[in-house]
Amino acid sequence: xxxxxxxxxxxxxxxxxxxxxxxxxxxxxxxxxxxxxxxxxxxxxxxxxxxxxxxxxxxxxxxxxxxxxxxxxxxxxxxxxxxxxxxxxxxxxxxxxxxxxxxxxxxxxxxxxxxxxxxxxxxxxxxxxxxxxxxxxxxxxxxxxxxxxxxxxxxxxxxxxxxxxxxxxxxxxxxxxxxxxxxxxxxxxxxxxxxxxxxxxxxxxxxxxxxxxxxxxxxxxxxxxxxxxxxxxxxxxxxxxxxxxxxxxxxxxxxxxxxxxxxxxxxx
Length: 268
Fold this sequence. Notes:
Elements: H1 9-22, H2 24-48, H3 54-60, H4 62-81, H5 92-133, H6 139-159, H7 165-170, H8 176-181, H9 185-213, H10 226-259
Helix pairs in contact: 1-9, 1-10, 2-4, 2-10, 4-5, 4-10, 5-6, 9-10
């Protein structure tokens, strides 16, 4: 099916959950390393670098982002090509092409993830500046910070379409023609809606688990202990990887709706 970037949002979400549920064991085994490294680095930053700047904090996220990109590469190869890491053909050309695809997909995933992280950090910094300066600052400073925040949020929404780049790179699909085909803002809004629908149950699950593990955690005025922060880190790591898996599977299904599929199951 060829179109200008439109896809059925609920179908993409349904198929994403169906795929992750069907392949949960394979995905769980692949996710153990990214989850473990994310927990270890989060604990290290929490205890050893509590005063880390936003820049340093984002730099510590790079190893986790690389491993998450590798996990998503494996997921996309399975979803779109039916390839399993433990059943690769012995052909050297195939393996060399796969290695190049993995490098491109991981790099694209890290760049996309880090761009989102930096953008969110800038927005948080601007909001903190507004909160601290609002009582005494001139209206121009507050309005300027709010306008800049709105501009960054708008850029994030528009840039969501670049989240499909790692998926395309994972299967050696030409990227520029697809970006041109999905350049409308409507495609980004559809991706945003799909992402919200796909991750909303996981967010509710996170709240339930945190509430059960840490009584009173919903009280924003209460300061969490180190043990409570550790519990949140351990709960958050696997659920964040699950969210990433669902988002990638949903985006891949959206691409399949837009571009169609070839006989081998990959994006046409």
